[in-house]
Amino acid sequence: MSDTDKAELEKLRAEAKASQDATAKLQADLQAANDAHAAAQAQVKSFAEKAAAERRASFVSFAEAEIKAGRLLPKDKNLAVATLETLAAGEQALSFSEGATTTQVTPLQMCAWLQGQMSSRTAVVQFGELAGGADAPAFDARGKSDEDIDQAARRYQAEHPSVSYAEALTQVTRFTA
Q1: Cα 50–Cα 54–Cα 57 angle in degrees, nearest 5
Q2: What is the distance, to the nearest Å, from the Cα of residue 132 to the centroid of all Cα atoms in its chain?
Q3: Rounded distance, CA 20 to CA 37, Å?
Q4: Whether the model pTM is above 0.70
């Protein structure tokens, strides 16, 4: 082998070694980038799970407050929480158009709207005493016949012209202590 061939061979070996070193460095960089990406994905997943758990806890707390206020029945608590969670899990905003005006509503805005609607309802359950007190009717329906109750309801309706017969009947059949 001539000296020029040996030099050329050495040059090619050096280039091959440099290429192998560069490939190894690129593979190491790629592995580091993949590891960083996996760590970032795990962190995002952890954050999303934590946010979902906090959101669920706030929905449960809201439902319990609505139950305590009498605006939500206890049997509907799980459905209310699941509905709010489903709305919050949406990924896209909804767009509504009326004329030239377009409104976008995010999933969390929909949740806030639904919570506002639930909170503004009148109580389904009334806590406290319903009979007795100063506004209790003087008529005690216990032991009375249907005819006696009917007459009392008609008297009440005559005294209160804006009251329907059903409302008058409700008023006179409240039992007093």
Answers
A1: 140
A2: 40
A3: 25
A4: no
User: Tokens 């090619």 sit at which residue?
Assistant: 12
Task: Kindly give, in sequence order, each residue whose CB lies less than 8 Å from that of residue 130, ignoring residues fewer than 6 positions away.
Answer: 174
- The beta-carbon contacts of 129-136 under 8 Å, at least 24 apart in sequence, are 130/174, 131/174, 131/175, 131/176, 131/177, 132/176, 132/177, 136/174, 136/176
Each residue's pLDDT tens digit, 18-51: 999 999 999 999 999 999 999 999 999 999 999 9
Task: Calculate the CA dihedral of residues 49, 54, 59, 65 and round it to 10 degrees.
Answer: 160
Which amino acid type is present at position 164? S
pLDDT by residue for the chain (177 residues), tens digit each?
788 888 888 899 999 999 999 999 999 999 999 999 999 999 999 999 999 999 999 999 999 999 988 888 899 999 999 999 999 988 888 888 888 898 899 998 999 999 999 988 888 776 665 555 555 555 666 677 888 888 888 998 898 888 888 888 888 876 554
Residues in Cβ contact with 95 at an 8 Å cutoff, skipping those fewer than 6 apart: 102, 103, 104, 105
